[in-house]
Amino acid sequence: MKTPATVRIVALLFLFGAVAGCSLFGIARRSPMVEVRNMAVPVRGDLSATIVSAATRDRWTASVVAPGVVRCTFTARMWNIVVDVRYSDGMFSIEYVSSEGLFFRPEDRTIHPTYNARVEALSRRIVQSASTAGIAVAAMQSVAVAPAAPQEKPYSIELFSREASDKYAYRFILKLNDSSGADLNLSRRIQADLRQSVQDDYLASAGTKDASALRIEFPEYAIRGGKVEGRAVVMTVELLEFIYDPATAHGRLAVKVNPQQYEVTRQWVRNNIATLARDKNANLIGILSGKPRFTIGREILRDDNVLEVEFNTNTTE
């Protein structure tokens, strides 16, 4: 028969093992990082006040750090998150900046599910606040007192399909409900819808849930005679390295590319160095913004399908 002292020792050992097991389990819990990109909201113009208000209501600390950028920080007792909410006319994206205590792993962009839960909640709160603000603005501009009906899509789909034997490219033809309203905002909304549809179809066909490396471009896109016609291309561009020295205006980047998309990816990289810089280090966007001129230097496609590009920027000319 065990003595009371023995029982206490066994209980303490069991408790220690349980705590250790929980800690190890917590470390092992990682999920693909949620990416909130080009989320549409029914409010135009400056969204900064709406985003700051929404974040504050969700217990984030928020402040405007640059035109079109609100930095949000969520601090808990054992961990914290920093994200940038970038917005343009009627859209916003939430981009990861840093975190502590959530086991972020940059090589596969996985993180503790707590990050995803907080970012998804912040996204919902922003959409909710923007929707409320949109209804309030509409009420001020109209004598109608009834809440606005859910907005229908301003187009119908006549064709949306992958090109034959090519899961990377899509053709689409959309018929506009009212061709007289074909303005820039409508075009942005349509492209956001198409981008989401292409991403969903591509991820399903490719058998993957990782959307972090996808770049969806529209090399052919036009509104003609009440119809939107064009082509969307999916590129897999994973940024591995980005180095830039503002003193010498010299930089170098390395991206993992799909060899079947090399030429189109190479051209996209040449034209979107600032976008890639933002993905690697949010602070670099301030250095490379303002449409600088890029002089491309050495380009090498390595045997491991990594494209290395050297470049110089010149903002004085």
Characterise this structure.
It is a single chain. It contains 7 helices and 14 strands. The strands form 3 sheets. Strands 8, 9, 10, 11, 12, 13 and 14 form a 7-stranded antiparallel beta sheet that branches. The chain is globular. 35% of the residues lie in helices and 36% in strands. With 317 residues, the chain is α+β, with helices and mostly antiparallel strands.
Question: How are the elements arranged and paired?
Answer:
Blueprint: H1 4-28, E1 31-32, E2 36-40, H2 48-57, E3 61-66, E4 69-75, E5 80-88, E6 91-100, E7 110-111, H3 113-141, E8 155-162, E9 169-176, H4 184-206, E10 214-224, E11 227-245, E12 250-257, H5 262-271, H6 273-280, H7 284-288, E13 293-301, E14 306-314
Antiparallel strand pairs: 1-7, 2-6, 3-4, 4-5, 5-6, 8-9, 9-11, 10-11, 11-12, 12-14, 13-14
Helix pairs in contact: 2-3
